[in-house]
Amino acid sequence: MKKVVSLMVALAGLGFSAVAQSPIALNIQLDKPSGKISPHMWGVFFEDINLGADGGIYAELVKNRSFEFDEPWMGWKKLENGVEGTYLLVNDSKRKGNKRYLRLNNAGNLKLGLQNEGFRGMGVKAGGAYEFSLQYQSTAKGMTIHVELLDPQNKVIGAAELPLDPVASWSEAAVKFPVNQTTDKAKLNVWFTGEGTLDVDMLSLFPVDTWKGRRKGLRKDMVQMLADMKPGFIRFPGGCIVEGRDLANRFQWKKTVGPISERELIINRWNTEFKHRLTPDYFQTFGLGFFEYFLLAEDIGATAVPILNCGMACQYNTGEVVPLDELDEYVQDALDLIEFANGSTATKWGQLRAEMGHPESFHLKMLGVGNENWGPQYIERLAVFKKALNEKHPEIKIIASSGTDPEGDRFDFLDDKLRAMNIDIIDEHYYRPPSWFLSSASRYDNYNRNGAKIFAGEYASHTTRPNGPGKSTWEAALSEAAFMTGLERNGDVVEMASYAPLFGHVDGWQWSPDLIWVDNLQVYGTPSYQVQKLYATNRGTAIIPIMRDGESVAGKDSLYASAVYDESSKELIVKVVNYNSQPKKVNLDVVSKKKLTATAELVTLANPDLNVSNSLEEPLNIRPKESTVVYNGKKLVQTFAPYSFTLIRLSTK
């Protein structure tokens, strides 16, 4: 007996106890679902930050292709100078949206040239085909364009020749050519030969191999990362760019549709936002506009969730507001957007959608009014929108902002007002340290089940900020996984959730951490991406209670858990986070009349080092590891690794 006592004392001294070593019992009530999971529960949020659109997912390789930047020659340099007046920038006010173009006066039949540096260089691949195009007008004969792609050592790695027929009005010419070397820092030379005057604009270079092979489309590998997540929705176009630094700089969707050459460029608000990351060449050409956003959502099977300006600029910048009696234009934009998305081809905006190649409806179901706006001035403007939208489109759910923070006076004021207004969905944002996410796993356990639904519209766990590419650590991702068990457990209240921001370019970021990082050729998912993907591809249809001693599994002994049932696949899906440096042995007791198959699928993300992150060089440090496990009956015994997120899929009969 003394030996047994001595052994127990020794184990206690090493940090082990008989109690600690006994399995933790979790009870799963498979036959008593507590609610339904929204079909668009887990989604993505796109904002044009960190070169997310131009220089990112929009596959255009030429920077400032139409000379519309505030500094018209930004990104360009002249390769050969003629006499004074050889190169003239013309500003023609009669041209819609795109007023500037370049006039080349070649009186001496010189070889004139331009070079474009691209977005931190141009990413091109050996064996790939690329299309150069431009708009031009000239009545001169014998005009020819010579195109060259150069590597960083100025070696030609791809070339083409493009003769131009004389035309009296603006026309497009294009040529495709192969590239024989891979580099992420190529540059483009465009030479012009022939005597006479030539006007050129929209000088453009795209890979032929874009997403779905669409001409002048989206970067294939970046869209594939989104498609692989199987997101339930995509929120666009932001974010703070919806508000703008002032109202003149706000996002106006009508200026982003129609012919691309007529879309009016504006400065991206992130251009000068952060003094430590100034990005003077960051503009929005709107080649990725609202039509393309809707099309992207449709492509990846996601519900489109557009957000519109509510008559308020960013309150962290100018805080400008439009007077209430001048709000009609903003409200009309919302009504017209619904027509653009859903209206018949007999309507003005439905006809434009059809002319752009999509006569069918985009089936818009919800619309955000304002982004991170707050205060009584927001409520006043939201009320005007709500009245008009409810009267004319009661089928459209309205998403409203709860401000920038998940607690405090601003949040409390908005939460009360929005619920009193019977707003459909409240958009909550939280950028917080891992400790907040861990302690907030039960945040929604006691939310009103009959009131507004919740959209966790922007969230990310920040260990430090701003940091650098790839610094979304396993610590941050695992804390998000723990928090997301609470979102899933409360899926009857939390209708949607999305991490933010989505993309970051390693050479052009302003904000971090981000979910997916890219350079001009490569893309990788952070540990947070791996967590988000596992949730989104295992969403289930019904919430299944998983309890410990009658309570939610939300942090005791650093364990977090949720469970769902997928009616289509007839599977129970259990998610468990062990946020602890020691393994945890757990007994999962499934209470059900259904039979369970003995073999289950196990997917695990784990690493004992919380500081581990993924990178371009090591993109899979944190990645899912799949295995099968055999259980005996409905009492499942599983040991969860230290600092792990584990997913168990069990088929039922």
Q: Gist?
A:
By secondary structure, this protein is of the alpha+beta class. The protein folds into 3 domains: 23-39 and 544-651, Golgi alpha-mannosidase II (Immunoglobulin-like), CATH 2.60.40.1180; 44-60 and 217-540, Glycosidases (TIM Barrel, Alpha-Beta Barrel); 76-209, Jelly Rolls (Sandwich). The chain contains 12 helices and 36 strands.
Write the layout of secondary structure elements.
Layout: H1 2-13, H2 18-21, E1 24-29, E2 35-36, E3 44-45, E4 76-78, E5 87-91, E6 100-106, E7 112-116, E8 122-124, E9 129-138, E10 143-150, E11 156-164, E12 167-178, E13 183-193, E14 196-207, H3 220-229, E15 233-236, H4 240-243, E16 266-267, E17 283-284, H5 290-299, E18 303-308, H6 328-342, H7 348-355, E19 366-369, H8 376-392, E20 397-401, H9 409-420, E21 425-432, H10 434-439, E22 453-461, H11 474-489, E23 494-499, E24 503-505, E25 516-518, E26 523-525, H12 527-536, E27 542-543, E28 546-548, E29 551-552, E30 559-566, E31 571-578, E32 584-591, E33 599-606, E34 625-630, E35 635-640, E36 644-651
Parallel strand pairs: 1-32, 3-15, 15-18, 18-19, 19-20, 20-21, 21-22, 22-23, 24-25
Antiparallel strand pairs: 1-28, 2-27, 4-7, 5-6, 6-14, 7-13, 8-13, 9-12, 9-14, 10-11, 10-13, 16-17, 25-26, 27-30, 28-29, 30-31, 31-36, 32-35, 33-34, 33-36
Helix pairs in contact: 6-7, 11-12
